[in-house]
UniProtKB/TrEMBL annotation:
Pfam families: IRK (PF01007), IRK_C (PF17655). Belongs to the inward rectifier-type potassium channel (TC 1.A.2.1) family. KCNJ3 subfamily. Residues 445-459 have a biased composition (Polar residues). Residues 39-179 form the Potassium channel inwardly rectifying transmembrane domain. One of its GO terms (biological process) is potassium ion import across plasma membrane. The chain crosses the membrane at residues 76-97, 151-174. PANTHER family: G PROTEIN-ACTIVATED INWARD RECTIFIER POTASSIUM CHANNEL 1 (PTHR11767:SF16), INWARD RECTIFIER POTASSIUM CHANNEL (PTHR11767). It catalyses: K(+)(in) = K(+)(out). This is G protein-activated inward rectifier potassium channel 1. The keyword Ion transport applies. Residues 186-356 form the Inward rectifier potassium channel C-terminal domain. Its main location: membrane.
């Protein structure tokens, strides 16, 4: 025990749920009455069909399956009875033929040819039938060619014997090779456990295969049987709900070589979303586990079943590891197959945990402080639009984008929000507005530079002589005659 505590930690307590494993039994609440199960631990369903009325004739329509489903004692009784009746009937037919032909009275006459030689009475007729049916052929009793009715009976006996042999021997062979016996070597843990795995509350149970031969295409499914009442008032005593054990991820397809722990994650889609440690004492449910696969040796489909009631689900437990690495192989210790140990697990349901998480960290949506600040933001936005119409054409083109975020402009009423909105402005406007006191000067210089473009265009429209005279750029006014200087100034103004 001390070595086990060093391995798992002091906060864990080992609990064995089987008589073979040492340890204390799991603490349980006060014992209830005997729980009526829908499926026994060995997989047998506690269902009886009654008041069939005239529907019993359907069993005779499928006679072969009916015989296979019967118990062994009834199969043996039908097997012996069928052969006994068939043998007595056929022996009686041979005796009747001998009696009607008078072979019984003339059997010792050497000059008389009977239908069947050396048949004197019913026992001799019975022995002749057994020798013919079993193809023993002692050679003392044989059929002759003077008896056409005997030949016809011999053919009928051969056909009927083949049918009876095929039916009864085939039925016995199928019953002996039924995959139900293969299910005896598939194990399920005696208890299921609920604990945290990968940060989620998980329902777990264990399956194992005792044989070395594999179960091909093994698949596992789980059903939750629980009574409930519909909103319309209908009571469902055995409502079946599906428990997801990895159908969406493919985890339900098992490679059953060593014992596996099957997990069902309890979330908002799980029927156990409201289940807590406290509510387990009042809940009544049954978890039916179905394991299906193909037997590798015979190729027949095998199904193993078991169930877990609410008393067999351990809250805050985990299964003990059973696989260890030896020299060159992995060893499975089935003595600890059913053993569990306690682990720290919250006693609340998943729904309660989510509600507590939301209450501990509420989300506060952002909002504007008052309507006055909202109106000021709108007025600033309108004023900014009017200023934008007075800017030069290039600046209006830059600031007149359709994708300009107006919401961020409305949020620019405060200094921090204004700094946040400047991140979406173009780089030129950011540089202009980032330097305090110089924005108007730079904006004016930018406007002056842009206003000089019409001046250059007007010079390009002058006659060639005047363009030649204006090549000096800034010295153009000094070289022109007074009349042309006056005309040029009137044109530019």
């Amino acid at each position: 025990m001390s070595a086990l505590r060093r391995k798992l930690g002091d906060e864990y307590q080992v609990v064995s749920t089987s008589a073979s494993g040492g340890g204390l039994p799991p603490p349980r609440s006060a014992p209830r009455g005997k729980r009526q199960r829908f499926v026994d631990k060995n997989g047998r369903c506690n269902v009886q069909h009654g008041n069939l009325g005239g529907e019993t004739s359907r069993y005779l329509s499928d006679l072969f399956t009916t015989l296979v489903d019967l118990k062994w004692r009834w199969n043996l009784f039908i097997f012996i009875l069928t052969y006994t009746v068939a043998w007595l009937f056929m022996a009686s037919m041979w005796w009747v033929i001998a009696y009607m032909r008078g072979d019984l009275n003339k059997a010792h006459d050497d000059s008389y040819t009977p239908c069947v030689a050396n048949v004197y009475n019913f026992p001799s007729a019975f022995l002749f039938f057994i020798e013919t049916e079993a193809t023993i052929g002692y050679g003392y009793r044989y059929i002759t060619d003077k008896c056409p009715e005997g030949i016809i009976l011999f053919l009928f006996q051969s056909i009927l014997g083949s049918i009876v042999d095929a039916f009864l021997i085939g039925c016995m062979f199928i019953k002996m090779s039924q995959p139900k016996k293969r299910a005896e070597t598939l194990m399920f843990s005696e208890h299921a456990a609920i604990s945290m795995r990968d940060g989620k509350l998980t329902l777990m149970f264990r399956v194992g295969n005792l044989r070395n031969s594999h179960m091909v295409s093994a698949q596992i499914r789980c059903k939750l049987l629980k009574s409930r009442q519909t909103p319309e008032g209908e009571f469902l005593p055995l409502d079946q709900l599906e428990l997801d054990v990895g159908f969406s991820t493919g985890a339900d397809q098992l490679f059953l070589v060593s014992p596996l722990t099957i997990c069902h994650v309890i979330d908002a889609k799980s029927p156990f979303y409201d289940l807590s440690q406290r509510s387990m004492h009042t809940e009544q449910f049954e978890i039916v586990v179905i394991l299906e696969g193909i037997v590798e040796t015979t190729g027949m489909t095998c199904q193993a079943r078991t169930s877990y009631t609410e008393d067999e689900v351990l809250w805050g437990h985990r299964f003990f590891p059973v696989i260890s690495l030896e020299e060159g192989f992995f060893k499975v210790d089935y003595s600890q197959f059913h053993a569990t140990f306690e682990v720290p697990t919250p006693p609340y349901s998943v729904k309660e945990q989510e509600e507590m998480l939301l209450m501990s960290s509420p989300l506060i949506p952002p909002a504007v402080s008052n309507s006055k600040e909202r109106n000021n933001s709108v007025e600033c936005l309108d004023g900014l639009d009017e200023v934008g119409t007075k800017l030069p054409s290039k600046l209006q083109k830059i600031t007149g984008r359709d994708d300009f975020p107006k919401k961020l402009l409305r949020m620019s009423s405060t200094t921090s929000e204004k700094a946040y909105s400047m991140g979406d402005l173009p780089m030129k406007l950011q540089r202009i507005s980032s330097v305090p006191g110089n924005s108007e000067e730079k904006l004016g210089s930018k406007t002056t530079k842009m206003m000089s473009d019409p001046m250059s265009q007007s010079v390009a429209e002058l006659p060639p002589k005047l363009q030649k005279l204006s090549g000096g750029g800034g010295r153009m006014e000094g070289n022109l005659p007074p009349k042309l200087r006056k005309m040029n100034s009137d044109r530019f103004t």
